[in-house]
What does this fold into?
Amino acid sequence: MTDVIIDIKSTQQGIYDEDVIELSTCGKMAVRDGKYMLSYLENQAIKDEVVKNVINVADNKATMLRSGSVESRLVIEQGKRNKCFYRIPQGELVLGIFGKRVVNELSENGGFVKLDYTIDVENDFLSSNTVEINVRRVEEN
It folds into this structure.
């Protein structure tokens, strides 16, 4: 596994408002058979809990896994709708995730991933989302 810096910009456009979250963190990247795995830890504002994030990317498909106080498995596959699991302390949801576009420009040296997708709950639109991920290797001195 390679040490990397991961910059993430997540934009969520709901019916009435837009939220933008940006994060820059240290993480790990692994490459095997043309598939990329990114992992990093994220501190939650409530109770100082840590959530582990793993993003697997291959061709036109990305899987975002979270474990800890928040658990989810979101599959973003270009041109397909997947039912995905999302659990928070208040309860569990099954979300519909429709992958509008998956751009994968990762290499062993880092690169870029862009995910465009919508989220629905029981076929009712919840939000349109864009996640942009820039990855760069940590240079050893």
